[in-house]
Design a protein that fits this description.
Elements: H1 2-24, H2 26-33, H3 40-56, H4 58-85, H5 92-105, H6 117-128, H7 133-161, H8 166-169
Helix pairs in contact: 2-3, 4-5, 4-7, 5-6, 6-7
């Protein structure tokens, strides 16, 4: 687990370094890639502008990190309690690795809305740690069902609370 955490941390640092290098050498990268990717200069300019705004407002960066930590906690605890719900105890560290890996993997546009990618990745991580595939798939499906249910319930409450249905119903 320590090795996996170290590799993940190294990849995160590498991605941050690549982001900073891309913003520093944006003109050079644009010149080299403009024939293959015509929109690269616009993309790099927007990225550089966003990084500049973020660095100019460190309190907003700290606030976004502070807000995202509880979200990640609920994501991970959802996976952990889904395992408990089906009677398969897993460690919190395994729930963390599986939850974060599955969540990030569904951002890769392989299928519409990441359908199946989340479950497959989570089940795959569980298999890597010795949990049978059938149990891993069950855990992933229960986790995703609970997550979707909570999203739908709070979405409906918010819709009614914001009175967005008034024009549609009456």
């Amino acid at each position: 687990m320590i090795t996996l955490a170290g590799i993940s941390f190294a990849i995160a640092l590498l991605l941050i370094m690549m982001l900073l290098l891309a913003s520093k050498y944006d003109i050079f990268i644009s010149r080299k890639l403009k024939n293959r990717i015509p929109a690269i200069s616009g993309f790099l300019a927007k990225m550089k502008e966003g990084i500049g705004r973020m660095l100019d407002n460190p309190s907003a960066l700290i606030l976004s990190l502070a807000i995202s930590l509880p979200v990640w906690f609920f994501e991970i605890s959802g996976t952990y309690f889904a395992a408990k719900a089906i009677g398969y105890p897993i460690s919190l560290s395994l729930a963390t690795v599986a939850g974060i890996t599955a969540f990030i993997s569904q951002t890769i546009p392989v299928t519409p809305a990441g359908i199946g990618v989340y479950e497959g990745t989570m089940a795959g991580v569980f298999v890597l740690f010795g949990i049978p595939l059938s149990t891993g798939v069950s855990l992933a499906l229960v986790d995703h069902f609970v997550r979707a249910s909570v999203t739908l319930i709070f979405g409906m409450i918010a819709t009614v609370h914001l009175d967005l249905l008034r024009g549609l119903i009456f």
